Task: structure prediction
Amino acid sequence: MLIDAMSFIHDDFLLGSKAAQRLYHEYAEHEPILDYHCHLPPREVAENRRFQNLFEIWLEGDHYKWRAMRANGIGEEYCTGARPPREKFLAWARTVPQTLRNPLYHWTHLELKRYFGIDELLDESSGERIWEQANAQLGNDDLRPQGIMRKFQVRGVCTTDDPADDLAHHCKMANSGMATKVYPAFRPDQALNVHLPERLNPWLGRLEAVANVSIATLKDLVDALRQRHDFFHKMGGRLSDHGLNTPFADFGSEDEAAAIFARALAGKAATPAEQARFASYLMLVFGRLDAEKGWTKQLHIGARRNNNTRRFRELGADVGFDSIGDWQQADALGNYLDRLDRESALPKIVIYNLNPADNYVVATMVGNFQDGSVAGKIQFGSGWWFLDQKEAMEWQMNALSNCGLISRFIGMLTDSRSFLSYPRHEYFRRTLCNLFGADMEAGLLPHDFNLVGSTVRAICFQNARQFLGLEGV
Result:
């Protein structure tokens, strides 16, 4: 007997009141998507990849699912290993019933329904059937990257790109006539690795090649990064991004940074203190570059990466062995923002926080640097990574509401490597409407749908569109 999931993923899923239902269906549901931070591979969008099976489009590279599978006693060969795609998918199907109360259970069934029209719950008994039903649809152009973006009304996408990337795939997309605009976002984290010259120096070689320059000094490095920043801007890029434990704010002189860089070029690793001084110098450079061009800087803070050193040596990074870090954020964050502000070089900034214990630190910090020039100039970004689920989204929105203006919030993004992640915007919008709707029902907000609904609609799309200034969105 088939288990019908219609009673689970139904029209009013996650909407716990009449007000929430009206807010979602009238004000949020049909808004387009601006996915301004993700990790989609530009090559796959440009080439409009055709996926051969459900594993390729759904599980390939998905460390969220791998973590759940490992926790369910599934061996690594079914996650990152060499098992055939069908066997990996069936191992995931066996895991899904064990993910109750994990957001993966919600996302799994939203994705099956929205992409494949499959209402059946995924488990060991339905896995083979769902594998066949989904695979039979993958010949449809609507399930290729560009078709998916059309289907979900994705107006714009910002990928995450290294300055040493030649952006050839972005050039191809810019000239393709695609309905969805795809922009590069400048992610220069590799430039900070003076403590890891074995990584830094090969990367510098790639940067030299793409910038057609020789890098022998710190000035050469900054000039090359500026050149690439200029090129990203020419290609429509208006955002940068940095993944940091905490912001760097141990400011030294240019001469000190130059000496640290010279030693790294010669193969001598910087000490932790030296790396912090060098990174602080470059982070000021990056802030100035963004401010000059009116870009938005994104700061992702608080992840503790590669905790399992054995697995890191075997499998590399970004395979599911990261967690929330526990660092002091207030001093470094405040000092970094203050230094840029004192220079009149503070760009628009979105701060994504991974430790919920720091939500109120971030929510109050952003208020210190609003200057009246741009509404919501410094943003407390949406729930990120381990916090992009219903409960933690509510924590972030409550902190922002209590300490700032949620009406100016630029809303959700996927932060995903998967083309099947666009229902995360729906998940966020339902959570948003449920939060506002509950307040309306409790008398904490006016029962005025024009007032509250217009705020919800703005958070879903318009705020991000106006704030980011991406041409053509």
User: Anything to note?
Assistant: The two ends are 46 Å apart (CA to CA). Strands lie at 33-35, 154-158, 181-183, 239-244, 296-301, 303-304, 323-324, 348-353, 378-380. The CA atoms of residues 36 and 158 lie 5 Å apart.
